[in-house]
Write a structure and sequence with these properties.
- It contains 3 helices and 5 strands, in the order αβββαββα.
- The chain has helices spanning 3-12, 66-78, 97-111, and strands at residues 19-24, 37-40, 56-61, 83-88, 91-93.
- The chain has a 5-stranded mixed beta sheet, sandwiched between helices.
- Strand 4 and strand 5 (91-93) form a beta hairpin.
């Protein structure tokens, strides 16, 4: 799902997904059309994450593009999500132990695709 699709879903259809996954980095092709996933390509500088207001956001960092990841996390925080979790090369922070395990498994699956 693109950010534009998510925005249209929320604005035009008044549908609020439970959560959105943000993949930061070069994601495998099969993720491009996955529902509730937003891909942020390496080096992207401008974001409009207003559609993230009140949502659970799970961030998967695919590599070590720390400048882009920092901009993404700052923009997500500015959008006032319900909560934000992250899994990347440096580790995982989730809502609870089960959520951490889920994020770590998802990151392994995505990174190994």
């Amino acid at each position: 799902m693109s950010l534009q699709s998510l925005t249209a879903l929320r604005v035009k259809h008044h549908v609020k997904p439970i959560s959105v996954w943000v993949i930061v980095g070069d994601a495998p092709a099969w993720i491009e059309d996955a529902p509730s996933m937003v891909i942020v390509k390496p080096g992207t500088k401008d974001f409009d994450f207003r559609a993230f207001v009140g949502l659970q956001i799970d961030v998967i960092a695919m590599g070590d593009d720390w400048p882009t990841l920092n901009r993404v996390l700052t923009a997500i925080d500015d959008a006032k999500p319900k909560s934000t979790s992250i899994s990347g090369p440096a580790g995982t922070v989730g809502l609870n132990d089960e959520h951490v395990r889920c994020l770590e498994k998802a990151r392994r699956l995505i990174c190994n695709s």
